[in-house]
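Q: Can someone sanity-check these two? First one:
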Amino acid sequence: MVCSSHFKAKYVRFLIKYHLFIFCCVFIMTSICISFIIYKRTQINYEHLLRGFQAHGTKTSDAYRKLIALIRETQITHLYPHSSDSKAFQQTPYPSFNPHINPCTKRFYLSQCPILPYTELTFEFNNNNTKLFDDINTFKFICKLEWNLRTNYTNCSMNQSCCQFIGPVDLLFPNEFRSFEQCDNITQNEFEEYHNQWLLCTSSSSSSLCLNSKLKKYLTYLESSLRFKIYLTIENDKNKLLHLYDNLYNYKFDQIFYLKFVQFDLNDEEILLNYFLKKNLYFISLTIFLYFFCLLLFVKNLFFILIISCHILLTFSSCFIIYFYLFHFPITILNYTSLTLYLFLILIDSFLWYNCWFINNHRRDDCTIQRIIENLLTQTFFYLMPKNLTAIIALVITFTNQIIAIQCFTVFSFLLILISFFISFTLYPASFIFILRYQSSIPTIEHLSYRFITSTTSCFIDRTIPCLIVRFKGFWLTLFTIISCFALAIIFQWPKLQYDVCRLTFDTLPVHFSSNINEKSLKSIDIDVTYYIGSRWEVPYESLIPLRDIPILNYNREDRLTSEAARTFSYALNENLTQLIQFCSTLKNEINKKQLEHTDYHSNVSSQILDNNSIISTSTQAENLLLNNYHCFGDLSSSNIDSSLITDTKFSTYILSHSNQRTNCTSLCPSNLTDTKQQCLSCLNSLYYSSLKNNDLILIKNGLRYKNDGQNPRYLFQTMNYKWLFETNLNNYIEWYNLVKNLKRNFITNFYSKIFPEMDIWWTSEIFSSFAIMEQLQQEKYLFISIKFITILIFLTLFTGVLGIFVTLTTLLNFVTCIATLTLLNYKLTVENMSYFVIVLIVCSQYSVLYSISYKLAPTFFFQRENRTMYSLKQLCTTLFNLTFSIVIICIPCLFSSVSYLSKSAMVYIISSLISLIYSTFFLQSLLCFMGPSGHLCFFIPWRLKFTRTLNKHNNNHNDISLRSSSTGGGGGGGGTRRHHRHLSHHRMSTSSYFASSYFSQIFTGSTYFESEYGGINENSVMASRRRESSRSHQASHLIKHGSLLTGELIELYTPRASLAPHLHHNRYSRQSSVSRGLTSLTPARPLYISPSISPYSQLSIHSQAPSQQRTPSPRILRPSRSRSPRSFAPITTTNLLRPCYSAPRLHVPLHRVPTSSMKQNDDILEETQVPIVQPTKKTVMIIQRQDAIASTDDIEQLSPITNSKLSATARRNLLKATTTESGDLVWLKRSNSS
């Protein structure tokens, strides 16, 4: 769009001609997208917002995914061999099996009950000396509490035990808990009997005497005698769940005990999250209202705010259609985070668009809409392009993270930023064209907010901050460097950014709910590790929607083989059945020792297992991993289970109908199996399932599985229960890494690998879903964040030159400080917080990149660091202050929300924006002022200029000869050549298109156009035959060709110029060309500071006058500059009486010089009003001097311009000679045909 001036001009003309058509198209597209979403609303599921918080695509996650898929696919007919013509298989026993298990809280399960999703309520007594059986009244009170919870939230019958509700009193009343009055009728003898039963099941020495198996299992989940737990399942009943949540803290416990922890199931948390968001809808509504209020306060144009709203709707609706219907990504809660990030970025973009348009709209010489829009597109492109590309780089690298929710967040954010960028460059220019054409009928509040904004920002922002930066830059650099070092210590040493394993995915519950137990108090946990030994099967392409991620086992390759083939699992199992039986008998010794022996994969222990049939070895021991319990397939011992027990499991009825009459399989399975392998295998299968028929949780993770072909087993599940002892704590990644390392090297893995070498063997655990997430977070913490900063450094270096190094350094220190602040606020390393850290990185980069672009686009004569720093601050400091103020105001309501998601998001935006503003304003600007580049900022600029000179060598050869002859020759011949060259140059191009920086026009009384290092002057020199800027383009090409980049002509071309008062009979301004400078001054140049009164808001006082006076600035006298601009030529002395202009008239570079007699240290510009043909004698001569280093209001006086009327030619020549002789140098004069 702005790569070519010719294309830019054509594009602007297209916008001007069809801006109303563009509006119609945008409104129609928005309506179509919204209508399509409404029409397809039934396909959109907003309820499952917590799906996708799991890793995929890694070795650990793939093994875990296979385990969950096999558990979901297991059918009861898979337990036994069956014929191919058997009945259709039943549905999966547990299709809603929770894929993610919190390692801090074990899955609660009781035998004789199905696997249910329980809500865990943990109560603790107020008095540390109080226990459950200390007082009968306390016991009665707990009994009444259980009855109320059971009757209100479960569907249990009154005459039997219920698996939907588990409590201490309910377990002590087996099949007897029938009424509320039963609690009041408990006698002292019954109370003591219950107490004895409780102690009998609690004691480890007498646990074998405990006849209440449910109570015995329940007591294993109690960490202390001062606590008791109640488990209930609500069966995904939304009304009951919300009623429980609303009334949970309303129960009167008579100050005996209190509710300490609440642990909801994942499905219940999803219901509660939607409920919390709806309940806090007024906070969200207030935030949206403040968002548009800040837009109204700082944008101030109601029509443009309407366009911004339409832009947001169109971008969101189109991105959602692409994201959900085209890419088929799931909707997660982090998609809302993507939306908040987009609203933050569009707030920055809207402020930049409006300020650029405001400045260009109030330029006095840019009277045409074409010129205003061209300047607007140029400036906004150079600001928005690197800013948005930096955010896209961070998102693209984050997408390599294998957590599904993070990938959904990055994809949706990427679509929003990219599509919004392209829409903005079509919609916003069209809106400004509409505003310019119908400005009188569009409401605005610019005049209302002027006084408030000016009074609060002009003094502090425009004057105090630049002064503090220039005078104390060393102090700011030292201070923020020390703060960053402390931030690094906070992140990596103390208190340290740690994992939160107990809440590793998303923090759903409100702040006042305590759902996490203290992981530091945990010294050990029990884990179940499941080993898969079986046929290789292909997993289909992984779905990003976890609920649909159930792979179909495909054994097509094995089905083509015969049953005797050595590669089938059935054949390998028959060959190694004897070793499997011996291995199961050997594991009993390990249970007695309570110590797991491990060795390397190729150690001698494996050979001892195979050769000597024993586990005895002298290898080292894994002291942090103990073997607790196991149910080995191949155990020949009988197990007597009372089949009369009341059970509600899904497997028990089917197993009883297929049970074997044998009590053991010893007679069928001797040590030397020959012909009885099939009978032994069938007996072992029947014995194994009959002994565990009432325990569904063990059956779904153990035993043989027979798939569709019927007779041949496909795989074997073997689950071992370990006791994992911690050396430090559960949140330490090294503990998890050592756990996986020990499991890879233990003898069980080696045994299965040795006897089944050609089979597919892998192992995993339900808690390894947490380890798979921790692996990705660990990579993000150390690897991906480094790649992001390196990529940003390379990109910014290519885009902004050496400034990229300073910007990346500032962003790094800024990011470290923000993360340290969030760490002090107890932000842990979780999936949710990882998305916040990505947002922090994007916010930090936005501020620094914008300042660097403004520093880079400083005018070419600003070759001093202080000057560029002042220019950068003048352009963006007020805008970024307004942006930060808006973000704080918008986020304040969400800080008071009880939903942790809203409060944490608001805190992240407030902290990141405040710290980013401070670092980018004080640290970056001090760094640039202290050691930033002062000249050209791009590494490959000299090559570009050399290439440009080569291109222009043949085209401008004749003109160069003319220029050289005019500079060396004298008399009329040289003058004729110069006049001929000026005539050709003038007729070759006109003055309606240029490459301008209207920002700089607000700094001095005149204005300038910046030399863009992206194209700027060099483009003009290359495209000299196509551009219509004759004198400027040709002179720039001439200067480049002679290798003089910083000559007096080039500096004069981009130094401020003044405009004269309007002609008496015309509304347009008439100007004289600027006066160039002669030889280069060798004296050191002093800093050329910027007037602090110039800003988009301070200009409002000038442009808010009456229409008749809007284009007529008041006359002023400006003091001469106390210092020369860097690399400038000696200035000329002119008269001090001239009316200044606050814009940049386009002037031609003069091609001839007028001799002067003296040189002085002031920097004046002489301009001559273009005289109409009918009145050649009337001229208005206005002379303007450059402003002082820091302009003051005391230096400005109201004077009228000098008007020379009815002067003869001789008098005018004498006046001109007197004026130029005083300076002592050559003066170039040329009439200006601009405007």
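And here is the second, same format, sequence then tokens:
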Amino acid sequence: MVSTSHTEAEESAFMTDLLSGIDDSFFDAIPSPDRSSKMRKTPSKSPKKPFAVSSLCTSVRASTFADTTHHQQNLSPIRKKAVFQTPRKPKLKHNENRGSEKDSLGSLLEGAEDWDWEDMDSDFMTPKKSVKRTSYSHCHPNDPRPPSTRCTVKEVRVTKDNGLYQKELTVVVESSSQHRRVILQDDWFDVYIRHGDEINIIGTFSNGSTSIDDISRASTSSTPPPATLPSISLTSQPTSGLLILHPDLLITATSLSSTPTCVRKPILATLIHSSSDVTPALVWGNMLHEITQSCLIDWTKGESEWDEREIDQKVDKEVRRGLGDLLRLNVTVDQAKRELKLRAIGLKAFRERYVHDTPKPEAILTNTRSERGQSSLLAISGLHDIEEDIWSPKYGLKGKLDVSVQAIIEDTITNTSRQYTQNAPLRPSESLSVASQTHPTPLELKTGRSTQVMEHRAQTMLYTLLMEERYATPVPSGLLYYTQSDEVVRVPRTMNEMRALIQKRNEMAGYMMRRIPSEKKGQKKEGIKDVEDFLPPTINDTRICGRCYVVNTCMLYRKAVERVRDTSSPISDIYSLKTSHITPTQAEFFKKWEYLISLEEHDLIRFRKELWTMTAKERQSHGRCFADMILDELYRHDISTPQTVSKRESRIHQFTYRFVKANALLGIHNPGDSLLNGHMSVGDAVTVSVEPDLLALVRGFIVSLTPDEVVIGVDHELSLSVIRARRPYLGQDGSPIAFRIDKDELFGGMGRIRENLACLFYADGDTQRLELVVDLRAPRFTEEPSGPLAPEHEAVAKVLKLLNKNQEAAIRKVLSTLDYSLILGMPGTGKTTVIAALILLLVCQGKSVLLTSYTHSAVDTILLKLKHVDFKILRLGNVDKIHPDVYKFTLAALKPATTIEQLENQVMSPPVVATTCLSIDHREAKRGGLDVSLFKRLSEAHPEAVVDLTDQYRMNEDIMLLSNRLIYSDRLRCGSEAVAKRSLRLSNFDFLDRLHDSTTKRCSNHGCWIEHLLNEKCKVVFVDTDDVPARDSRVGDLTQNITEANLVHQVAECLVGCGVAEENIGVITLYRQQIKLLSHRLQDHKGIEILTADRSQGRDKEVIIISMVRSNDSGQVGDLLKDWRRINVSFTRARSKLVIFGSRSTLQAEPLLKEFFELMDSKGWILQLPPNADTIHSSLITPTSTPRKRTVIDLTQDDDSPSPRAPSRSSKKPRRGGVDEGLLKGRPILRDLLNGTS
């Protein structure tokens, strides 16, 4: 393909589009004079100095080719992963061409940009007091990046200067609470900014002066003029600074690059993440990306020459990895290989031409901004990273760079021509000069045709900004590699274009922040609050809108949210085609639920920004960060297990690292500083950073967690040498680099939820479910089948005979439905059994079944009843969260498919597919309707579709009495006499004798409290801890009860010692911190499950021990214990014995629990613990900081017996805690994600 070049006219047209709606005469605007320049030093341009060739950025000028050749011979060798040093910033001198008066002033202000202007308002002769800072200063003395100041806008005034309007902002610096002034002129005047907005100012403040308006106001009032404030003027001058509006909104460079065409499109693409749009161009592009990146990685190891054989091998490997996408495209393996080999044909030429120590004569670099007579050559001499993810709250941007490389660019130009024209002929008399520079640069791979080159340029330009921020060294240009044309294009970063892109970014951010609802004074809290229009208007271009990939979403929001009536615009036909079927009721339904989702999304943004607005120690105090973590360089992860190997091959778990608390390395162990304190648990998503500004160096999840150590699986390699090269000041005193590990917030789930909601309303969407769920159309039924069910299938008929009448009636109701049936099963009534029987019956009838629930445990409990069926089952989901006995149903357990046919057989042939879904239970938005489940909505609308199950086969009659009396109005019945009289019988009473032989204190005169609990006749008991006492405590904003955890641990130890199998014991608590505390206490009993109420569903146990946690003098119960649904779920997990630990004096203040205590009193089921009950049995006391606790095995050994080894670690995945009310209060979707439902 012919190389694509662009003329000045094309570039100008692009810039006009970029600035559409701001100023059509952008490039012709006359910059306003920078009044503040008189008060700050204007440094002269210092000559560029060469740096060592190992530096990240060097620049050398020579007058002859010979000198350049000499320079090239000293460049760093190829085939070594680049580790470069950061150059020091040269000192600047003041301008010597000023007049004498200016010279004096210049001498006086020498270095004024380094003065602490914030300290000038006070008595600067007094020693400076320390100021508490909640954000970071992102510049080091040797850092070449411009300074950034985070501010909050306190006042916005429109004034005039030389007849031109300008905005004067009074802002408060967040780190120091000092006032400053920002003046917005030229195109910056149009920034939509309001009181209270947060902004970043990129640039240096100078000592400002009182404005004319201030003096005028002061002359007519008794108020003196304001004090002189440090100020900055933002203009259209190339040297002007930048303003970043709402910098905590990190907008992707990809989204921002498309804004010149339409600002609305990237915002909608951010709201709804489509996972169904798979096109051939997208699939081939992603695969070619992988192949090219793999070649570059192998090259750094000296293992790649990019020859035809090697490319073919990589194509084969990538095709095997991408069989799922090929299946969706209906493309065979051979077709895919041919297509990819054809597209990859230019890689070898790229390697030979550009990948080298020095630029080759044929390594031509296209530059549409080249000067007259200028030509450029390129050499890629090193590789920094692949798919590098960079976040920049300084610029409010983020991006994932295809490839980060070290580039050597050699420019040959004439000494006389400086006009920006291309391909102009050289005069014979003109001499040449060569400029050679090396610097890190983003290399973007573009596998399609260069039809969107303007968007590509904008994207690459933004990546240079991000890379400069990460590498702390100048990145003046980026590279675009078009694989189809074998062309590499240089994209220099120019200030005019960058300013225009930042202003578009600010426009996007302004609209996105309007998503946040505002409560008006006197407004009722119920319902949907007033929300501003948060979407830009449509561009009304028939051609562009008709071909847009978000047109369905765009028109849906226009109809349901914006309520637009359109019969005459250019896109009115498109609008009618996409939305004419949507009724007012349906539109209102979408608007309501879309709004409720946005409430939780705002919380995610609020928590994520803590990564850069809080120090690690500040965020650690809230339980959302591990501060001062040291990388264990000697740690080697065991990758022998199949599940670990599977994860290692995934993108999110490429590397595994262990981090240790800095204090632990010094031998300091403070229980209050334990990593178990806080919101972070095994399986949680995290980011790893280095303060102050190496944010999210890697991302991953927690693999294991102890009080002093954490093991995480991450997506990128962590190199201490690279970090030190980018930030030389780290570890200069010999101390190790301290990392911070932050809890990451999951945004992807929000986009998926919106997509699922929106798909109901699209013109080609799910019309049937739209009618049933939104319009509440009545479900249809046929006549119920009579006679025996499945008589021809002996195995199925045998299972069906075991069902009671209620269960059989439920199955017959389901078989007669044409739309949906609802089975309302009270605890223990056999819902799992009915579902398993239904699946067997439906499969026998040739039907396919989708099994889903909002927890992994509920899905897997049903699958465990189907372990021995003779048909295939496909279990989808994260294998780390799937029950080990169900692992055989996953794709990971099967032999990897090598053909489309094999994969299709694995994916499409199983008649049963099981997975999880997200549920919604948003406490904050319950007033808006999120407390109404889909089951409740449908059952209340159509009770005829509901079948009740009332005979339960789990709990004995004492345990059943609690739920029957408090919840179900005595409708629940025991299915048999054997169930009603069920009890727990112990097999080893010798353990209790040994326990008391080793006890140093006597039990109470009323007998041993542990013996009382273990008595067979004690089936339900509330253990009152008031006299112990056992008070709750706070860990950040989390709640725990250490004494209660010790009591639970002692009872569990005794149960195991008396012969109860660990698998028959469950411990439940509603508090996330208590989960982690109990998990640590019981770490040697891997069979005992420690669960939240939600995760306990389907996890029935012979014995359930509940820790209620709350115990305090103020009677604070908390919101979690007011949720009677969760408490009821916890009570009804027990079959034979239910033990509840708690403080009666605290809990009975809650009305629902007061009724519970009245029932327990009437039955005599309350046990009052004696004082210091937790210390009576000394052999059961848990040491606070030992590698391994004393276990039951230790207690059952003779004193002279050899000490046994610790129990081997089970193959089960580590347990994860539930969700506490602190962090996730009112955030159900994230709660479900973190509790393992996705």
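A (reply): Looked at the second one. The chain is about 30% helix and 20% strand. The longest strand covers residues 375-392.
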